[in-house]
Amino acid sequence: MITDAAGLGRARATAFVLPALVLIAVFLVFPALWTIYLGLTDYRLTGLQAANPQVVGLDNYTSALGDPRFLSSLWLTVAYVGGSAVIGQAGLGFALAWVLRTRRGTVRRLVEGVVLLSWILPSTVVGFLWFALLDRDGGTLNALLGTPGFAWLLDHPLLSIIVFNTWRGTAFSMMLYSAALENVPPSHLETARLAGANVFQQLRDVVFPLIRRHVLTNLLLISLWTFNDFTPFVLTGGGPEGRSEILPIYVYNIALRGGELGLGAAVSFLILLINLVFALAYLRLLRGRRRQEATAAAGGPPA
To answer: How many CB atoms neighbour CB 15 within 10 A?
Structure first.
């Protein structure tokens, strides 16, 4: 009887989980496997390879890794992620959350509303708004600064998309850090102040150790989102001369504009591997933190 009940329970659990597994298989697993297969072929949008693609093995991967354009896009993407996500969004988001934690009333609601508005608007709409802001001839920024004709998107394309993405994505970090700071006991901060700790020492010794998991989670999510972000294409199209051609734009250019779908699929799989490295590094850091907390709770020496 017990065995039958257990089997019935497993069957019901499987029935509840099965729809989700089917959706994951259809929209995630199958496209990933298809991308891996295309990366091993010379499949193109037109020509003989479109009708009868041939398996070329790892040729697409060796071609991509040996392409100076791919390496340039990779370094541009690293700079884009580091500047706009790690430094910009995470730094500015925490600064806003820290300043607003003790604020109440209209000022806090106004700042949160403006920051959230930039996040909830569709990415394409925000991209065209920033294009209008930075336009050389009729841009709002040039009108405000009195610098007509200054080509922000042509002279400083990478900096432009970094600032754009920082403004667009700061809201998520601000909200996550605001929730994390709510869990920091005020008595701990008060004790640190009475001990003579300045703001930097309070953050280093009290705040960050308590919200480390939130920091790691935030850095992982915004880094992955930024690494795979295609929105800068609206501003610069990857130009001029490839100076803002991050990896998602590079894949678009070679796969759809150039018609080399096999090569584009291979590069997409390389991007997936890089994302997995990010995720594994995060899990390793988080696991190490949990081990330290477990050791401390048991009264043993730090791991």
So the answer is: 9
CATH classification of the domain holding 207: 1.10.3720.10
Q: Give the least confident one: 139-153, 161-175, 220-234.
A: 139-153
Task: Tell me the HSE value of 72 on the side-chain side, using a 13 A CA sphere.
Answer: 13
Residue 11 lies in a domain: no
Distance CA 123, CA 233 (A): 11
Whether 13 is in a domain gets the answer no
Give 96-129 pLDDT, tens digit per residue.
888 888 877 787 788 878 888 888 888 888 888 8
Within 10 A of 194 (CB to CB), how many other CB atoms are there? Answer: 8
Domain count, the chain: 1
User: CA 78 to CA 59: how far, in whole Å?
Assistant: 25
Q: Under DSSP, is residue 41 helix (H, G, I), strand (E, B) or coil?
A: strand
- For residue 24, pLDDT over 80 is answered with yes
Residues in contact with 254: Cβ distance below 8 Å, sequence separation at least 6, in sequence order: 260, 263, 264, 267
Q: Is residue 7 part of a domain?
A: no
**Averaged pLDDT, 190-218:** 86
- Provide, for the chain, the percentages of residues in helix, strand and coil under a 3-state DSSP scheme, each rounded to the nearest 5: 75, 0, 20
Residue 52 lies in a domain: no
Distances (CA, A) of 103 to 235, 248, 296: 35, 40, 35
Q: What pTM does this model have? A: 0.85
Say how far apart CA 265 and CA 39 lie, in whole Å: 5
Amino acid at the residue 191: T
CA–CA separation, 277 vs 249, rounded Å? 21
Q: How many other C-beta atoms lie within 10 A of the C-beta of residue 135?
A: 16
User: In which domain, by residue range, is 218 found?
Assistant: 67-298
**Distance (Å, whole) CA 153 – CA 135:** 7
